[in-house]
């Protein structure tokens, strides 16, 4: 079907599309969505796809786009009256473009019910533009959906990020990436683009090795928390690296081929699936939480995280001994 055609070059988008379809079915689609991913990951494709699902008139507001109706053909031609596409002129998205989009969202839809605004590379909004968008994100008009895309969501105002549902688009690249990276010893076949920094930049590669060393030490002696806590607080990438270790350990345990063996993954693979899953979920939750906190709260959250991880891993070890008796 359409979906397959549009994603044949970017098959990873099909999973994202499926999740979005479910939200549409359940009428739980958020009013503001931010698709974040590296250039080429398809953030724009998925935003366009979702706009079509929302605007197709044949299958109703929440059905799947037919590709045949007037709305669908207008979309293909790039002139659907209920879709506004905002992109940077020169290097920025100015406040006027956002004001126009806001005005558009106040009006009634012309063809169906939904109105959609796509803001391409939203991180290019000037501060004035971002502030103008905030109000619309805070007080949505009926049937209006704001779809933002970005290549670097960290460059967006925190207030914009917190009012959108963030969907990370992560194409797997594995072998392809392996062939042209600086530190190819750091990569396995399941690496994806979230690893790019530590693979392409030697400084970051060294930081990653340092991180691994301290993490391995902590795993061996988990009651010395200080250095590990400090590392997680100071190194902005540490939480993501930690999460990657837990997900790699889950795959390692399930005997996926091609996983890079390291002291760390071998050590983590001793933990039960359930424990790994719990640690991983905890890390994702904490990362999300941290994006919204000030510096003061941050160290508290990290300290609690380390204690929680220690407890999860400690309980697992006790359980292991009890099972063997
Ligand atoms: Zn249609």
Automatic annotation (TrEMBL):
Keywords of this entry: DNA-directed DNA polymerase, Nucleotidyltransferase, Transferase
User: InterPro entries per the record?
Assistant: DNA_pol_HolB (IPR004622), DNA_Rep/Repair_Clamp_Loader (IPR050238), P-loop_NTPase (IPR027417)
Give the taxonomic lineage as stored in the record. Bacteria, Pseudomonadati, Pseudomonadota, Gammaproteobacteria, Alteromonadales
Name the UniProt record assigns to this protein: DNA-directed DNA polymerase
PANTHER family, A to Z: DNA POLYMERASE III SUBUNIT DELTA (PTHR11669:SF8), REPLICATION FACTOR C / DNA POLYMERASE III GAMMA-TAU SUBUNIT (PTHR11669)
Q: Which domain of life is it from?
A: Bacteria
Reactions performed catalytically: DNA(n) + a 2'-deoxyribonucleoside 5'-triphosphate = DNA(n+1) + diphosphate
TM region positions: none
Q: Which GO terms describe its biological process?
A: DNA-templated DNA replication
One GO cellular component term of this record is:
DNA polymerase III complex
Q: State the signal peptide span.
A: none
Q: What Enzyme Commission number(s) apply to this enzyme?
A: 2.7.7.7
**EC category:** transferase
Q: Name one GO molecular function term.
A: DNA-directed DNA polymerase activity
């Amino acid at each position: 079907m359409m979906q397959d055609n549009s994603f044949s070059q970017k098959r990873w988008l099909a999973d994202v599309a499926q999740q979005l379809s479910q939200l549409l079915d359940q009428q739980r689609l958020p009013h503001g969505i931010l698709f974040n991913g590296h250039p080429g990951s398809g953030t724009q494709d998925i935003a366009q796809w979702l706009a079509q699902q929302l605007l197709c008139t044949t299958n109703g507001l929440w059905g799947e786009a037919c590709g045949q109706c007037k709305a669908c053909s207008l979309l293909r031609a790039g002139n659907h009256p209920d879709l506004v596409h905002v992109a940077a002129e020169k290097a920025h998205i100015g406040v006027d473009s956002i004001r126009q989009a806001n005005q558009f969202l106040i009006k009634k839809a012309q063809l169906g019910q939904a109105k959609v605004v796509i803001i391409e590379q939203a991180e290019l909004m000037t501060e004035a533009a971002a502030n103008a968008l905030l109000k619309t994100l805070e007080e949505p008009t009926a049937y209006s959906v704001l779809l933002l895309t970005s290549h670097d969501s960290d460059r967006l105002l925190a207030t914009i990020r917190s009012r959108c549902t963030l969907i990370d688009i992560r194409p797997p690249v594995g072998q392809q990436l392996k062939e042209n990276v600086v530190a190819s010893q750091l990569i396995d076949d399941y690496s994806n683009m979230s690893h790019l920094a530590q693979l392409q930049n030697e400084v970051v590669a060294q930081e990653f090795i340092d991180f691994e060393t301290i993490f391995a030490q902590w795993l061996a002696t988990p009651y010395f928390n200080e250095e590990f806590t400090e590392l997680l607080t100071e190194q902005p990438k540490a939480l993501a690296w930690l999460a990657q270790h837990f997900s790699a350990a889950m795959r390692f345990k399930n005997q996926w081929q091609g996983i890079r063996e390291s002291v760390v993954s071998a050590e983590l693979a001793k933990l039960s699936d359930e424990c790994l899953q719990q640690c991983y979920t905890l890390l994702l939750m904490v990362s999300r939480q941290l994006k919204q906190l000030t510096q003061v709260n941050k160290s508290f959250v990290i300290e609690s995280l380390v204690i929680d991880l220690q407890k999860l891993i400690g309980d697992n070890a006790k359980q292991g001994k009890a099972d063997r008796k």
